[in-house]
């Protein structure tokens, strides 16, 4: 497989201005007639080379004349045609097989419905095309299908015609007036229930809102609809951005590789991010539905109106849109808790990716399989880069920059540099050094030292940055100096050199430094602080992120110490800190975050040659010790957080989170099992039910199987809840797990062809059951490889996502590293390995 390089980008030799598509939908043999209007770009005599994969070519017509098969060449990824005209019409007819398309790229079946996924390069599995984001055309799409099977026929834009045809068929024709790249094309056909609503935009236009779900699910679409309206209003208020078509459609499907897709006017969603109701969805599900609905909606401007020139620029739309959805969530909920959760994702997953074999800058320079670059780095670190810009420029200037970006580039396909230049030009800011964030991989490390000069009342602070010898970045560093003065002294430092010092005058006593307020930059820090200093930050910092983070640092210190000396006892000061957290009068959601220990994944990377089991034992020991010492307080808090009825406001959600974190401590103690069955029996919502079951899976007892069986009977016809059941089973923490996994894979409701279900077992095991994934026999690694071999042939994209924990082995002990490599070598030798897995395995073994 040959890599593609950013440096090799060339503008397209031809443009496509208009596309007229006709789909005659049949399960095994769908016929696609694709009429394209081409123009030659500049003078050249190169042939036209169209992308196409896994399609059967039926015919090619040039300006209405049918071409003989000797007049063009076809291979397994392209169609090449020599044309001497500067302006011409090409009609290409292809046949495709949606029913057998288990890769879920291009046109495929999700249950009985037809649907498409074209990002990044799926359109070429529908027809021959210039399948690249800088080729933008207006699309007209006619969909023909059986009327009974597919009463709803959808595509992008506005409906312009519809009617009945012979043999029980009908058609609908759509026109999208906004020129778009092929990756934003969508088609959906099937039998759905529709939730309808409308939205009046800030300029007074009425937009029809429609959410399509499987029959029987309409009551689970209200939260998505309300979220969509909130997102539309938020984007108007925050960025002055208004929706531009007369209709906005969302379709929920059960078979989907990703979370959702922002196709113009017709979003296709994994049903997991649309469907939610009080009994079947958790608070986290509610949060995620709103966030993903927002994310895809926000793409309409950041992604669709202004799109990417090439796929190396993916973060142009994704980093910016994740930042926008994070801000939206922060405004809808607790900003501090939202931020803490963003940071947990970075620390537990993105940092590992950035330290692993697939590390890449947020704007990658070399790609073998584009689908491998829809990463935490491009998305989450990309969002952090935009956030830093927001921090450096301030809210108002950031808005001015964004306004200029849209006025300069509306309707165009542009680069990350174009974005930064617009921000710089609009605000008169020099962002040249800042641009380095786009080309460096790895997580920078800040090494901090301080010196207090009592005589001169000066506080000296020195920060050094390092990231594999790469040039210094522009890093915004928010700090607070805490003294006995009433007000803490807050600053935003611009760290631009490899090592830089600051002197603060008039500091009458040695301050305590709270570093990286609101986590102003995606960096690691090396700044040992005493337990007393951390305790001071926890109670006295103004910045809530720092308060939380100081607690995490304190816990990290003791978990690592216990790992090295399992017999050591924890100091009273740690218990006192926890006692004061438990007794304090802080918001429940924030308190729940403070009580949550740093996870295995957050810790594992920073320890060299780590024995994962020893780390898990240490986390467990600290948790159990805290639970034992403070049992009455945990129990009191648990009981005080119980609520009589069910409500879904922020306070109720926070209380549930707090109650369930207390439960997770209490169940580490011998005599508290009854709390689990009590909570399970009395729960009136999925959050509480699932919390009880997760604890039961983490500390398996006699009860466990009874509870799980009861749950399965109750929810057997709810697909999304059964995904939770599969995930719970895969996380059972005892040595029956490998038999359990075999049973799950043989379960009548299990199928590797459904990505959500495959992930529910495989990812739940590798992520939530680290004790057995990393077990000394290597069986966990072997299990994953066996599944990847099967998935490679079914759905390479899903396989490639699931391999992550096996390629990030650098910090593990030597024995585990060699067991993993042995498994990877086996996989590498598998014939017909798709390029998705090949790229990652080769990188891991390089
Ligand atoms: N563009 C999609 C999203 O991030 C993923 N393909 O919303
Ligand atoms: Zn996105």
TrEMBL record:
Annotated catalysed reactions: Release of an N-terminal amino acid, Xaa-|-Yaa- from a peptide, amide or arylamide. Xaa is preferably Ala, but may be most amino acids including Pro (slow action). When a terminal hydrophobic residue is followed by a prolyl residue, the two may be released as an intact Xaa-Pro dipeptide
GO molecular function: alanyl aminopeptidase activity; metallopeptidase activity; zinc ion binding
EC number assigned by the record: 3.4.11.2
Domain Peptidase M1 membrane alanine aminopeptidase, first and last residues per copy: 224-434
Gene3D superfamilies (UniProt xref): 2.60.40.1840, 3.30.2010.30, Neutral Protease Domain 2, Peptidase M1, alanyl aminopeptidase, C-terminal domain, tricorn interacting facor f3 domain
Keyword Manganese: no
Residues annotated as domain Peptidase M1 alanyl aminopeptidase Ig-like fold: 442-526
Peptidase M1 alanyl aminopeptidase C-terminal domain span: 531-845
UniProt record, GO biological process: proteolysis
NCBIfam families the record matches: pepN_proteo (TIGR02414)
Homology family: Belongs to the peptidase M1 family.
UniProt-recorded name of the protein: Aminopeptidase N
Source organism: Colwellia chukchiensis
Classification lineage: Bacteria, Pseudomonadati, Pseudomonadota, Gammaproteobacteria, Alteromonadales
């Amino acid at each position: 497989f040959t890599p593609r390089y950013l440096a090799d980008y060339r503008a397209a030799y031809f443009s496509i201005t208009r596309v007229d598509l006709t789909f005659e939908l049949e399960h095994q043999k769908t016929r696609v007639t694709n009429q394209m209007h081409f123009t030659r770009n500049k003078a050249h005599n190169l042939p036209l080379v169209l992308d196409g994969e896994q399609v059967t070519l039926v015919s090619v017509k040039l300006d209405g004349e049918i071409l003989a098969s000797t007049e063009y060449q076809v291979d397994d990824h392209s169609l090449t045609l020599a044309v001497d005209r500067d302006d011409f019409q090409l009609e290409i007819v292809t046949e495709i097989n949606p029913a057998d398309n288990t890769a879920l790229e291009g046109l495929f079946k999700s249950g009985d419905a037809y649907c498409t996924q074209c990002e990044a390069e799926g359109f070429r599995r529908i027809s021959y095309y210039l399948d690249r984001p800088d080729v933008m055309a207006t699309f007209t799409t006619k969909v023909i299908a059986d009327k009974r099977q597919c009463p709803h026929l959808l595509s992008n834009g506005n409906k312009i015609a519809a009617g009945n045809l012979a043999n029980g068929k009908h058609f609908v024709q759509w026109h999208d007036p906004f020129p778009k790249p092929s990756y934003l094309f969508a088609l959906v056909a099937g039998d759905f229930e529709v939730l309808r609503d409308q939205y009046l935009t800030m300029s007074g236009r009425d937009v029809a809102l429609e959410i399509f779900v499987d029959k029987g699910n309409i009551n689970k679409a209200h939260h998505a609809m309300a979220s969509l309206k909130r997102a539309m209003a938020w984007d108007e208020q925050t960025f002055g951005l208004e929706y531009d078509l007369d209709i906005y459609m969302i379709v929920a499907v059960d078979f989907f590789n990703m979370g959702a897709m922002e196709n113009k006017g017709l979003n296709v969603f994994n049903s997991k991010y649309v469907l939610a109701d009080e009994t079947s969805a958790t608070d986290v599900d509610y949060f995620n539905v709103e966030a993903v609905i927002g994310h895809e909606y926000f793409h309409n401007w950041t992604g669709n109106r202004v799109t990417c020139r090439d796929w190396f620029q993916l973060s142009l739309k994704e980093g910016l849109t994740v930042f926008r959805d994070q801000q939206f969530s922060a405004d809808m909920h607790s900003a501090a808790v939202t931020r803490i959760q963003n940071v947990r994702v970075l620390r537990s997953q993105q940092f590992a990716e950035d330290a692993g074999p697939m590390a890449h800058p947020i704007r990658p320079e070399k790609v073998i399989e584009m689908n491998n670059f829809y990463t935490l780095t491009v998305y989450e670190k990309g969002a952090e880069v935009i956030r830093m810009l927001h921090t450096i420029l301030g809210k108002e200037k950031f808005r001015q920059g964004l306004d200029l970006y849209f006025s300069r580039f509306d309707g165009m396909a542009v680069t990350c540099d174009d974005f930064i230049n617009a921000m710089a030009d609009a605000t008169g800011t020099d962002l040249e050094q800042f641009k380095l964030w786009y080309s460096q991989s790895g997580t920078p490390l800040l090494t901090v030292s301080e010196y207090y000069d009592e005589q001169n009342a000066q506080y000296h602070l020195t920060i050094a940055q390092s990231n594999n010898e790469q040039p210094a970045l522009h890093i915004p560093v928010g700090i607070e100096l805490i003294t006995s003065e009433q007000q803490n002294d807050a600053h935003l430092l611009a760290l631009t050199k490899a090592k830089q010092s600051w002197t603060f005058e008039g500091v009458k006593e040695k301050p305590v430094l709270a570093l990286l307020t609101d986590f102003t930059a995606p960096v690691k820090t090396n700044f040992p602080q005493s337990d007393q200093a951390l305790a001071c930050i926890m109670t006295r910092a103004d910045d809530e992120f720092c308060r939380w983070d100081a607690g995490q640092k304190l816990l990290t210190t003791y978990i690592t110490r216990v790992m090295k000396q399992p017999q050591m006892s924890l100091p009273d000061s740690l218990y006192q800190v926890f006692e004061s957290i438990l007794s304090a009068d802080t918001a429940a959601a924030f308190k729940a975050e403070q009580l949550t220990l740093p996870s295995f994944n957050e810790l594992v990377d920073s320890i060299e040659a780590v024995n994962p089991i020893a780390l898990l034992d240490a986390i467990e020991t600290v948790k159990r010790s805290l639970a034992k010492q403070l049992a009455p307080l945990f129990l009191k808090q648990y009981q005080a957080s119980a609520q009589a009825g069910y409500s879904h406001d922020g306070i109720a959600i926070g209380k549930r989170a707090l109650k369930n974190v207390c439960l997770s401590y209490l169940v580490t103690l011998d005599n508290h099992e009854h709390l689990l069955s009590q909570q399970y029996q009395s729960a009136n919502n999925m959050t509480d039910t699932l919390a009880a079951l997760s604890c039961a899976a983490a500390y398996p007892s006699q009860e466990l199987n009874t509870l799980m069986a009861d749950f399965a009977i109750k929810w057997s016809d709810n697909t999304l809840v059964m995904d939770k059941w599969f995930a719970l089973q895969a996380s059972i923490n005892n040595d029956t797990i490998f038999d359990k996994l075999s049973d799950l894979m043989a379960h009548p409701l299990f199928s590797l062809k459904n990505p959500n279900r495959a992930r529910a077992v495989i990812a739940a095991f590798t992520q939530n059951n680290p004790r057995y994934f990393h077990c000394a026999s290597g069986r966990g690694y072997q299990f994953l490889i066996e599944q990847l071999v099967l998935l490679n042939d079914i759905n390479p994209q899903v396989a490639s996502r699931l391999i992550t924990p096996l390629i990030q082995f650098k910090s593990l002990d030597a024995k585990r590293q060699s067991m993993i490599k042995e498994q990877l070598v086996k996989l590498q030798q598998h014939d017909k390995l798709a390029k998705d897995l090949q790229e990652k395995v080769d990188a891991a073994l390089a």
